[in-house]
Amino acid sequence: MSFTPLFPGMLLDAADRFAQDHAATQDFAETDPIREMGWACTVVPEESGGVGGTLADLASIVEGLATHGLHLPVVETCAVAPILLQGAAPEASARWLEAVCEGSAKIAPLTALSASLDDIAVQAKQLDIGCELTGVVQGVDVSLAATHYLVPAVLQGTGEAAIFLVDKERIPAPTTTYRTMEGRRGADFRLEHLTEPALACIARGAEAQRALVQADNAALLLTATDTVAALATLIQQTVNHLKERRQFGVTLSSFQVLRHRTADMYVRYLGAKGLLMHAFQEYDSDAADLRRTLRLMKVALAETARTCAESAIQMHGGMGVSEEVLATRLAQRLLASEFRYGDRLTHAARLLAPQPTFPGVHYERQP
């Protein structure tokens, strides 16, 4: 079986070494490795102090971390937040992106990990002095500290989308915090009549809607990269386990049924890898049907990931339920990935009956 890197290069090597060195670290609450490594600036334009890299560059980092089962909110911090900021007016966008790259601002999205970014949970009531935000946002990643949150909202009366940049000190404390299946630090927030000045609204209308769709496209692609990279390592770990473990005096790898099952996992992996590469090509070429391609990929990868995760756990036997085993953590990661940025049932329903969340919004990547 051959497992060549999805996105080879220096970024992959750096992320792989970092993940290998910190494989036992479960909490980065006291540090900020994403910014220390400079990853937060990957897709930020050079004129705003960033690297000016592509989404494929960011995918290299995601692949390196996923290979060792290490969780960091790279998708949220390095893709979703910068893309949403780029939806603001040029001056405001440049100022905040520069602050992110300098480290004076740590900006994260206040959005549910389990929902598409255009499934907005917050309502904004327009006031004479600004807007009043109300809503419940569940499943926000709070693995790393933030100084500001980006809060998508729907403007009451007009139905337009808007994006607010809110100081963390203004955000109420989470109603509850917890660990997710794959080890993230999650939290639920309740915003009740949170009043923000007009300047806090950095984008609204078509600009906000476009930024949300672009950020969601990037999140789906990077989550798929995480899935395929984790799947490759899971299969490798399973093959190694079958070669080492013995039963009835022979290695498990000598049992034909287990060999066939492993081969099935590998074939599914090759299909998943092909889907991912095709989706990136569609993204790079601004394909008109990009949104449909991403939804189809999400549905297909979710089924593949679940099937392979269950097979790996079963073939590991009792060890398959121990979180000390990398394969177990990777299986948990694959199962959880199905529910990131909309589960497969949600995307399948939208494929069957596509209806824009907002009138006049085109759900493809805009140039």
Key descriptive features of the protein:
single chain; 367 residues; alpha+beta; Butyryl-Coa Dehydrogenase, subunit A, domain 1; Butyryl-CoA Dehydrogenase, subunit A, domain 2; Butyryl-CoA Dehydrogenase, subunit A, domain 3; 3 domains; eight-stranded mixed sheet; two-stranded antiparallel sheet; 10 helices; disordered C terminus
Main sheet makeup: 8 strands, mixed
Query: Which assembly state applies to the chains in this document?
Result: single chain
Low-confidence stretches: 357-367
Supply the CATH architecture of the largest domain.
Up-down Bundle
Straight-line distance between termini: 39 Å
Structural domain count: 3
Number of helices: 10
In a few lines, what is going on in this structure?
The protein is α+β, with helices and mostly antiparallel strands. Helix content is 46%, strand content 16%.
